[in-house]
Design brief:
Blueprint lengths: L1 H29 L3 E6 L1 H18 L3 E6 L5 H7 L5 E5 L1 H11 L3 E9 L3 E3 L14 E5 L2 H13 L4 E2 L11 E3 L5 E5 L13 E4 L1 H6 L10 E2 L11 E7 L6 H10 L2 H11 L4 E2 L2
Parallel strand pairs: 1-2, 1-3, 6-9, 6-10
Antiparallel strand pairs: 3-12, 4-12, 4-13, 5-10, 5-11, 7-8
Helix pairs in contact: 2-7
């Protein structure tokens, strides 16, 4: 009987320890006050480091900012749970990546838009684009579609109607016989020495000290019916849209402080969307 009693006591003690361990883990999880976010350097990292980090610190959060120089890894990192969120992409790009790569990512809030523009080191107007000129464009689906739409909207080419994204096969007329060079979006600014012009995403243009508002030969309309497609979103893994971390990030990114910073810092090259 004594042996049985001792065994019962031992089991009860072990269960009690396990219960304490379980309770401790839960408490630790609930007290996790570090948020990790993936961004591209300009303007996203600047906005987050200069404004958002301080706002979150005031609320008791620590913000871990991870910078990327491409458009794929920030989504992979959120999908795999390495990051809580990212902030750098449009809704069209997000939808394309979810479909093509099997991601399960959700847009939470629209933060800003950066007009895509056509840039050149040697030309200052559309009239200067001669027959056979080479134009570099992004090679990923949504940004290539966006670049071709910009060229079509400015009567450089015409496009066939489509329910999906525009591709080079969508080009209907190209009366000036432009040659299109498809490059990774991050490499477009470096291509300007080798092509007549390039259609460049706003963040990469800014990173290369090119102003969408001042230096672009043409740029996207920011108040047209398609402008919403160009907004950059806060994005999280599906299922995390309502977490405390996500809500804290959303509140900070859509604050008056962020809007004022965007207006004063980028002078029309980045436009707040909230």
């Amino acid at each position: 009987m004594k042996r049985i009693t001792k065994s019962i006591i031992a089991v009860s003690f072990a269960l009690a320890l396990a219960g304490c361990g379980s309770s401790g883990t839960s408490t630790s999880s609930s007290e996790d006050k570090t948020i990790s976010i993936g961004v591209t350097p300009v303007p996203h990292a600047e906005i987050v480091n200069d404004v958002v980090k301080g706002l979150l610190e005031d609320e008791g959060w620590t913000l871990d900012v991870v910078e990327f120089n491409d458009y794929v890894q920030p989504n992979t990192s959120v999908e795999e749970g390495e990051l809580d969120a990212n902030y750098y992409q449009t809704i069209n790009y997000l939808d394309e990546q979810n479909e093509s790569r099997g991601f399960h990512l959700k847009a939470v809030a629209g933060i800003h838009l950066e007009p895509m523009g056509l840039y050149s080191k040697s030309l200052t107007s559309l009239d200067a684009l001669e027959d056979g000129a080479t134009i570099a464009i992004p090679n990923d689906g949504s940004n290539e579609s966006r670049a071709l739409k910009l060229l079509a909207d400015n009567n450089l080419i015409t496009l066939k109607d489509t329910d999906g994204l525009y591709t080079l096969e969508s080009v209907d007329t190209n009366t000036k016989n432009f040659k299109f060079q498809e490059l990774e979006a991050a490499n477009l600014t470096r291509s300007l020495d080798d092509v007549d012009a390039a259609v460049i995403n706003g963040n990469y243009a800014l990173e290369a000290d090119l102003s969408p508002a001042k230096d672009a030969i043409i740029s996207e309309s920011t108040d047209g019916e398609d402008a919403y497609k160009y907004i950059n979103y806060l994005v999280v893994k599906e299922g995390n849209e309502e977490t405390e971390k996500t809500k804290a990030l959303e509140a900070a990114l859509t604050s008056d402080e962020v809007k004022d910073y965007i207006d004063k810092t980028y002078e029309g090259s980045v436009i707040a969307a909230f």
